[in-house]
Amino acid sequence: MGVEEERKFDVDPSYAPPELAGCLPTGGRVVAREPVILTASYYDTADLRLARAGGSLRFRDGDGDGDPQPWTVKLPTAVPGIRHEISRPGPPDGPPPAELVALVTALTRGAPLAPVVTVRSRRRRYELCDADGTVLAELADDTVSVLDGAEPRGGFRELEVERVADRGDLLDRVAGVLTGTGAVAGGFTPKHVRALTLVPSRRATIAAPPDLPPPEPPCPQPTGGDVLRQAIRRAAARIVAHDPLVRLGQDLPGGDTPVHQLRVGLRRLRSDLRTFEPLVDRQWAGSLRRKLRWLAGRLGAVRDVEVLRARLRRTATDPAPPVDPEAVARIDAALAVREHAARTAMDRALGSDRYVALLDALVAAARQPRLTPLASASAQQVLPGLVAGPWWALRSGPTGEPGAGDLAADAPDEPWHAVRVRGKRARYAVEAVADAVGGSAPALARKLAAVQDLLGEHQDAAVAGQTWLAIAAADPGDHRLAVATGQLYERERAAVRRVRAAFPAAWRAADRPKLQSWLS
Question: Does residue 220 surpass a pLDDT of 90?
Fold first, then answer.
């Protein structure tokens, strides 16, 4: 999967591209390529769900390079002008490749795809190279004709500057020269979206907003329903954005994974629906929570193994003493078998009608959650009391169970895990309302995040230690494996002890009266 970063500019038919060599590093040059005719057929649902959401699926030929992968999906990101780009092979007269159709499921919600518009471009290309000939960026000068079937529907001319290898400010410098010579920055509207506005039968549809409403800027005096609606939209956006990355197995920067992020979206929404239950229709919220729990379970099995394999790599490379690499490889192989089975079940779930039904329910919830009359009350009035429940459950614990401040360093792992579960719900609740409530709520959210990080590390280490022992017990005759798993187990228990030593200070930082005053 590639990442496309580009800038677009509108120009009139008589515009002459300026000299751009001055934008390049010393010795750089601009190389003009032979013009080509590109014909791209775009596929979408009847109501243009894909285009309205900022994505596309196209077949394009005529680039002159004999492209072996003419089918391309482009997916929006949170950054304007940057999109994920995935290409695959396939015949021009057949249906789009199944893998690409699956990648847009979160945007199309399984609706049938068919050609909706054809764009024919006469492209003049200019490669912007450094002194060594490395292409840093490409300028495409496109004269575009729009076809609706065989009928011409007008056209336009635009310039695109796309980053290739440069990691500096080359695009900014080029943009400055282009706008200084009459080009008009055209925003980030894709060609096919502009083309669809020229097709009379598509014009009204493409002008409609996306099916999944994006989160909105905070309003000055939100109601409880406003805050919950925004929480639903944030969670839904996280789920939809990470769905294709999960399918691609594409890791995220910083070592995170899309499975983790998608699962976080599911768990946050489930938690919010539970915490703010008085604001929503109970039957509606319960149905949505059950749908979310089903998918979270499928992703949870994958995530659990992801965490174990990451811990194995990290723990086994602890400098002293070294762990037998052959034994570590056997442990990892056993985990890989588990991961394959879990991913197979997850992929089956993502390809099911049940998942499409969940996507439909998410879109409906983000558009218009079923709120109770209480949701119309001021956020300042209604939310603190709702968040107080999860907070006190964390602080004091249910009857017969320790609260966060009562956890003993020598206690079994189970009460620590129970506090972790309650801590996650309290953290999600505080984070959901922090901006709307203001005051000390954002500070409490930050402190709870630190508490939760420690409890998460505790749980991961405890589970990993038990997993290593279970793997050894499954093969009792393997002495080298037993020694290795024993070493790994001790390192995980050392991690548990470190967390337990650090936890009281982290909890005291969160359990301060001035951070809790808004909860009364």
Answer: no
Handedness of CA 318, 323, 327, 331 (dihedral sign): negative
- pLDDT digit string (tens) for 162-185? 999 877 799 999 999 999 999 998
Contacts 24+ apart (CB under 8 A), 448-453: 448/423, 448/510, 450/506, 450/509, 450/510, 451/404, 451/423, 451/427, 451/503, 451/506, 451/507, 451/510, 452/420, 452/423, 452/424, 452/427
How long, in residues, is the chain? 520
Same fold for the domain at 223-377 and the one at 379-520?
yes
Report the alpha-carbon angle 188-190-191, nearest 5: 135
Burial of 99 (0-12, 13-18, 19+ CB in 10 A): middle
CATH class label, 2-206: mainly beta
Could you name the CATH architecture of 223-377?
A: Alpha solenoid (1.40)
Overall average pLDDT of the 96-100 stretch: 95
* 113 and 96 Cβ atoms separated by less than 8 Å: yes
Q: Taking the CB of residue 92, how many other CB atoms lie within 10 A of it?
A: 11
Rounded Cα–Cα distance for residues 389 and 394 (Å): 9
Q: Are 55 and 76 in contact (CB under 8 A)?
A: yes
Q: Output the pTM of the full model.
A: 0.90
- Structural domain spans, the chain: 2-206, 223-377, 379-520
Angle at the Cα of 454 (from 466 to 416), degrees rounded to 5?
A: 55
- Using DSSP, state whether 57 is helix, strand or coil: strand
pLDDT in tens, 11-65: 999 999 899 999 999 999 999 999 999 999 999 999 999 999 999 999 998 755 5
Distance of alpha carbon 50 from alpha carbon 44, whole angstroms? 6
Alpha-carbon distances of 265 from 152, 455, 511, rounded to whole Å: 44, 19, 27
The closest alpha carbon to 70, from 100, 42, 91, belongs to 91
Q: Which fold has domain 379-520?
A: CHAD domain (1.40.20)
Taking the CB of residue 198, how many other CB atoms lie within 10 A of it?
A: 20
pLDDT band with cut points at 50, 70 and 90 for residue 487: very high
